[in-house]
Amino acid sequence: MCVKANYRRLLKLRACPAWVDKESLEPVYQKARDMSKQTGTTYHVDHIVPINNPVVCGLHVPWNLQILTAEENIRKGNSFIVEGIVYDSRRSGVS
């Protein structure tokens, strides 16, 4: 497995609180796999509030996950929006 994938897995482990039922995460990932298989479009599970951002660190919990197409997720990157303000680490913070 590549270094980037291992680093991403480490971030998820650190961002998943001990009190979270880890089995509650799997249905979101399964739904993304099912959607990919049914439509032929690749879907990703995205953290709404990123788990690795200089401004904020979200949690790896079910309510912080959303399913996006791979294209949407790659475009979103490590950014998030709060009250219309985009926080994007690729562009040095707020835009």
Fold and architecture overview:
The structure is a single chain. This protein has helices spanning 3-15, 26-39, 70-76; strands spanning 43-47, 65-69, 79-82, 85-88, 93-94. The strands form two sheets. A three-stranded antiparallel sheet has the order 3-4-5, with no helix packed on it. The relative contact order is 0.16. The longest helix is centred in the middle third of the chain and has 14 residues, at 26-39. The mean pLDDT is 88. Helices cover 36% and strands 21% of the residues. The protein has one domain (3-94). It has three helices and five strands, in the order ααββαβββ. A hairpin with a 4-residue loop joins β4 (85-88) and β5 (93-94). It is α+β, with helices and mostly antiparallel strands.
Characteristics of this structure?
95 residues, two-stranded antiparallel sheet, 3 helices, 36% helix, 21% strand
Describe how the helices and strands are arranged.
Layout: H1 3-15, H2 26-39, E1 43-47, E2 65-69, H3 70-76, E3 79-82, E4 85-88, E5 93-94
Antiparallel strand pairs: 1-2, 3-4, 4-5
